[in-house]
Design brief:
The complex is a heterodimer of chains A (about 280) and B (about 500).
Chain A: H1 2-19, H2 37-44, H3 46-77, H4 85-97, H5 100-110, H6 117-124, H7 140-165, H8 169-177, H9 182-209, H10 213-219, H11 231-240, H12 249-282
Helix pairs in contact in A: 2-12, 3-7, 3-9, 3-11, 4-7, 5-10, 7-9, 9-12, 11-12
Chain B: H1 2-35, E1 45-51, H2 58-72, E2 76-82, H3 88-97, E3 104-106, H4 110-117, H5 130-134, E4 149-150, E5 153-154, E6 169-173, H6 174-179, H7 189-202, E7 208-210, H8 218-223, H9 231-235, E8 237-238, E9 243-244, H10 249-263, H11 277-285, E10 289-294, H12 297-305, E11 311-315, E12 327-329, E13 337-339, H13 346-356, H14 359-369, H15 380-384, H16 387-399, E14 400-402, H17 406-409, H18 411-422, H19 428-438, H20 443-466
Parallel strand pairs in B: 1-2, 1-3, 7-10, 12-14
Antiparallel strand pairs in B: 3-13, 4-5, 6-10, 6-11, 8-9
The chains are: A mainly alpha (about 280), B alpha/beta (about 500).
């Protein structure tokens, strides 16, 4: 186990740190030492910070839109009185198991302003006068984010459903006897009990949201005009873009290290807050 | 316990037997290597060919062709390794790094130089005969202009016709133009703008006058060379002066043309979001689009999708003030097939290379895909009788001229050229796209980029000197080059 960890986790990480100090094209030994040159270039690159900002926005949307929405739907689907709830769960989970590249391409076709299904519908019912270019520079980021939320919604929903199963029925019965209404039950029973698991869901959702590479690459390749560029597509361009005659693996590694470090700090900053929430919830 | 002991013993025996078998196998294969597989009768040498299965249908095509080859060369078996186009170079590099390289591989255009610089490509001169040379147009394998030679040695072979990679054209739907009362296809940028505007305005959201695939500034790279030196759109440098020329009016004019077309909602909506070339030629084939600038392979794709389309293949329009340059052809051919310098069976690998450059193979490729290939004699007569293909050849003759090639001229030129291309932040395409999409003037960002690019060239020259490579602006300067004329190498 330790060997596997070293080979497939530790070594690639350490290697990328090492390579980030070289001007290296990915082939043969890295010999052209540039010190912190790559890091300086990354930190001064407007394109990197733009991509970073977009990655961060993906996280904000996942945490503040996807998580609460999934919780709301999970509470509805957890109701014993809802008929066909397993079917709803299945439908909501289907996008999770669908190939992201396929989703990206299908959505790009559906959202096409010239003959796409969505614009056809919107114009035919008179909601819009002219087709909307959903993937234009202005709308591409929110559009891709919406698709990302839709795609990842099912998994967050499953997390929440699992969390809701941990609430003992006794507590609900006691609340009912005490005359608590639905809102009071939610506020004083459900949410406090699932809060510790909510902390874990938050971390999982945050980590997942930081890497929407496949969806962005399939839908927009980071464009137009880098409007949907995230750190992963930025790194990909420098390391693997076939149009780049001399790939800059060293620079791409430096960008990855910087991104990893900032993500680590952001996760660590959540620690005390989440710990407090966790302890409060488990009391 | 006894059972456990027995199991262990059995296990040890098995391991021992396995080790012996492996050792014997290893020794046997080592003998084969040392003795040469051709000596053992009945043995076949396996040649690994790493290629990309494009265009569509190429997988089956290559297998059929290699089956034919194997029938004629009983001692050779070809193992095909397919990689997606975008992953091919990285995959081949990994194969070399892992010590298991292909014998023959596809490394296209600049990708070949990546392989060559690492010493992975074999020199082919020792195999070349007069018969081989005669397959190609006279003089086209001259080391100075072939594009296939490095350091004076033939190192790679072409697949497509030399002009195929460089020529660009305007595809026009004549029927759509006629429906909108436009008598003739546009010859100038201004006519194009007027015709496209008229069609889009009358098209009712169903038919559009113009569109283009952005793809790192491709449409600008197609229009700009009609107004100035093509190298300006290629890397932002004027090869007549060796200086940054992002502020050149030819580039600015092409950006402004697209900016006006986008701002006026003349272009097919969503064009800026397209990432797949199929999107644009499909729209054209469906007659939603009247005109667009294209590369030659798209002519075939359009015809495959809509055999009856009334299509013209024409030169890219020029500014109203007249032509000031041509699209640049940097060499007679583009690299494609290479032979590994580490091949254990170079003679057999060459036979495969020789087959891939044969008239028989090139004719089959032409007939299957409609691509004009490097061995012109294989398809010349048929292409002359095909209106689409004849039009492509006519456009190439009219709108393409050989230009200087710093990559082939000097090591410093190659390093500087590649350094500029690798410095994405200094390429004009992003600034131009922003200008077009946001309807902002290009001149300001162009001036900033120009200063940065010039400074970068100086910095790079110094940095290369530190690595022992002599490089200066002189390596990027060809003062005798006139963009309106054919360039002869050596002209400085």
């Amino acid at each position: 186990m330790l060997l596997l960890f070293v080979a497939f986790t530790l070594w690639p990480m350490v290697a990328s740190w090492w390579y980030s100090f070289f001007d290296w094209d990915g082939v043969g030994p890295a010999t052209d030492w540039v010190g912190f040159g790559n890091f300086a270039e990354v930190l001064q690159s407007g394109a990197f910070w733009h991509a970073f900002g977009n990655s961060f926005l993906f996280s904000l949307v996942a945490i503040f839109v996807e998580m609460p929405l999934a919780l709301l739907v999970a509470i509805l689907l957890n109701s014993q009185r809802l008929r066909g709830r397993n079917l709803y769960r299945l439908f909501l989970f289907l996008p999770v198991v669908t190939t992201t590249a396929v989703i990206g391409i299908v959505f790009a076709i559906m959202l096409d302003p010239a003959g796409g299904f969505v614009n056809g519908l919107l114009t035919s019912v008179g909601l819009v006068d002219a087709p909307i270019t959903f993937l234009s520079e202005s709308y591409a980021l929110p559009t891709v984010m919406a698709v990302d939320v839709w795609k990842g919604f099912g998994i967050t929903l499953i997390y929440w459903l699992a969390a809701l199963q941990t609430v003992p029925d006794d507590l609900y019965e006691a609340a009912k006897i005490d005359g608590a209404n639905g809102r009071q039950t939610l506020r004083h029973i459900t949410l406090p009990v699932i809060a510790p698991i909510g902390v874990v869901i938050l971390l999982l959702t945050f980590q997942k949201s930081m890497n929407p590479f496949d969806l962005v690459q399939a839908m927009t390749e980071g464009g137009p005009n880098h409007a949907t560029d995230v750190v992963a597509t930025y790194i990909y361009r420098y390391a693997f873009d076939p149009y780049l005659n001399a790939p800059r693996y060293g620079f791409a590694c430096a960008a990855g290290v910087v991104f990893g470090a900032i993500t680590l700090v952001m996760t660590a900053l959540q620690g005390p807050l989440l710990r407090r929430q966790y302890l409060k919830g488990s009391r | 316990m006894n059972n456990v002991d027995l199991s262990r013993r059995s296990l040890l025996r098995l391991v021992g037997a396995g080790a012996v078998a492996t050792a014997v196998g290893g020794l046997t294969s080592a003998c084969n290597l040392v003795g040469g597989s051709e000596k053992s009768s009945g043995d076949k040498v396996t040649i690994k060919v790493a290629l990309t299965p494009d265009p569509s249908g190429a997988s089956q095509f290559y297998r059929q062709q290699f089956d034919l080859f194997e029938k004629k060369n009983q001692g050779i078996k070809i193992e095909v390794i397919e990689n997606p186009s975008l992953q091919q170079l990285n995959a081949v590099e990994l194969m070399f790094q892992q010590g298991n390289p292909p014998d023959v591989f596809r490394a296209q255009d600049d990708g070949f130089d990546r392989m060559f610089e690492r010493g992975w490509t074999a020199s082919l001169d020792q195999y070349v005969t007069d018969e081989f040379t005669s397959r190609f147009p006279a003089g086209s394998l001259d080391p100075a202009t072939s594009g296939l030679h490095r350091d004076g040695k033939l190192c790679t072979l072409p697949l497509v016709w030399g002009k195929w990679s460089s020529v660009r054209m305007l595809l026009v739907n004549n029927a759509v133009l006629k429906q909108h009362g436009i008598a003739a296809p546009p010859k100038t940028w201004e006519e194009l703008e007027q015709s496209a505007t008229k069609i889009t305005q009358a098209g009712g959201g169903k038919v559009f006058g113009f569109a283009a695939m952005w793809n790192n500034g491709d449409p600008i790279k197609m229009f700009q060379p009609t107004a100035g030196a093509w190298s300006i759109a290629e890397v932002g440098v004027d090869l007549r002066t060796g200086k940054a020329a992002v502020t050149d009016p030819s580039l600015g004019g092409a950006v402004e043309l697209l900016r006006r077309l986008h701002a006026g909602k003349v272009m097919m909506p969503g064009w800026e979001t397209w990432t797949d070339t199929a999107r644009i030629y499909t729209a054209f084939a469906k007659e939603q689009l009247a005109m667009y600038p294209a590369s030659p392979f798209q002519v075939n794709e359009v015809r495959k999708l809509n055999a009856k389309i009334d299509m013209s293949v024409l030169p890219i329009p020029v500014p109203a003030s007249g032509r000031a340059g041509y699209s640049g052809q940097r060499s007679n051919f583009s690299p494609l097939w290479s032979m590994s310098a580490q091949s254990k069976h170079p003679d057999q690998a060459w036979k495969v290379m020789d087959f891939l450059a044969s008239k028989e193979f090139h004719l089959a490729y032409y007939e299957k895909f409609g691509t004009l290939t490097a061995v012109e004699s294989a398809w010349q007569d048929q292409a002359a009788a095909n209106p689409d293909q004849k039009a492509i050849m006519d456009v190439a003759a009219e709108a393409l001229r050989r230009g200087p090639n710093p990559v082939l001229t000097s090591p410093g030129g190659k390093e500087l050229w590649n350094a500029i291309r690798g410095k994405q932040d200094l390429l004009w395409a992003d600034a131009a796209q922003q200008s077009i999409l946001r309807n902002q003037p290009f001149a300001g960002p162009a001036a900033q980029l120009n200063a940065k690019l010039d400074a970068f060239i100086d910095e790079q020259a110094k940095a290369l000197a530190g690595k022992g490579i002599t490089a200066s602006r002189n390596d990027l300067t060809f003062p005798a080059w006139n963009p309106l004329e054919l360039y002869t190498p050596g002209q400085k």
